[in-house]
Design goal:
Layout (H helix, E strand, L loop, with lengths): L3 H4 L3 H4 L2 H13 L7 E6 L5 H9 L3 E7 L2 H10 L4 E3 L12 E6 L9 H13 L1 E11 L1 H4 L5 H6 L11 H10 L3 E9 L7 H10 L10 H11 L12 E8 L10
Parallel strand pairs: 1-2, 1-4, 2-3, 4-5
Antiparallel strand pairs: 5-7, 6-7
């Protein structure tokens, strides 16, 4: 996994910046009821999306949480007093504290299914009955846009997707959450070029291709042979899934 303390300073610029954050926030808000309440953005990173969630819904009290101290500092500058440092597997909030909970670009980082289940379980725990949990799913697959870069990378080793929709839905069901909708948004500014993909390979972004190894450099050489080295290929399109925590039946209901 990347060192997000080291990534914090360049994170936004390397991942589509405000344009991508705008698209993400708009799609997330489309899956959350418009009524006022409390929202928790788990793994909020730099707060670039979290701030937009808060700005778009003035009646919504938004809290961000992240494990990386450097990310928390950046998010806190955007949302003073509203960001805490926390492990997403053990959230420091009481049960039923939030009307909505989000995990945007988190579950794909958790290679152990038990960790994914723990995160989904914590999100379900802090969600009030009737509340909504929204998460990105199948993030790695979103980057496969059918380009010549994807053709070169097709044979690379891959881990099973911890955030595959079926797996996330199963985790949600185990914690009492029911499907409540889906959406998607464009990762504006994240289209790969051959040159940026080579840099990502050599930085270790492809976790099963260690920097400096022969297979990594072989792929780098094949990418270097592609035309239009600096032309971004199409942007990815990220998928969202929403789940609702059922409300208890009204008193007196048989």
């Amino acid at each position: 996994m990347l060192d997000y303390d080291k990534e914090a300073g360049t994170y936004d610029a390397s991942r589509g910046g405000e344009a991508r954050a705008h698209e993400a926030a708009r799609a997330v808000l489309g899956l959350i009821p418009a009524s006022p309440g409390r929202l928790l953005d788990v793994a909020c990173g730099t707060g670039i999306v979290t701030r937009r969630l808060a700005a778009a819904r003035p009646g919504l009290r938004v809290t961000g949480a992240d494990l990386s101290p450097a990310m928390v500092r950046r998010a806190s500058a955007r949302l003073p007093g509203a960001v805490v440092r926390a492990d997403s597997r053990r959230l420091p909030f009481p049960s039923g504290a939030f009307d909505a909970v989000t995990t945007i670009w988190l579950l794909h980082l958790l290679h152990d299914p038990e960790d994914v289940g723990a995160v989904v379980g914590e999100c379900a725990r802090v969600l009030r009955p009737g509340g909504v949990y929204v998460t990105t799913v199948d993030k790695a697959a979103a980057h496969d846009v059918g380009s010549d870069i994807d053709t070169v990378l097709a044979a690379r080793p891959r881990r099973p997707a911890a955030d595959a929709p079926r797996a996330v839905t199963a985790h949600a069901a185990r914690h009492g959450l029911a499907p409540a909708g889906h959406g998607s948004f464009t990762g504006t500014g994240q289209g790969r070029s051959p040159r940026t993909t080579i840099a990502d390979l050599r930085r270790g972004w492809f976790t099963l291709l260690p920097p400096g190894e022969g297979s990594t450099e072989e792929l780098a050489a094949r990418l270097a042979a592609l035309p239009d080295q600096d032309r971004p290929r199409p942007d990815p399109r990220f998928a969202l899934r929403a789940f609702r925590k059922p409300a208890p039946p009204p008193a007196g209901t048989p």
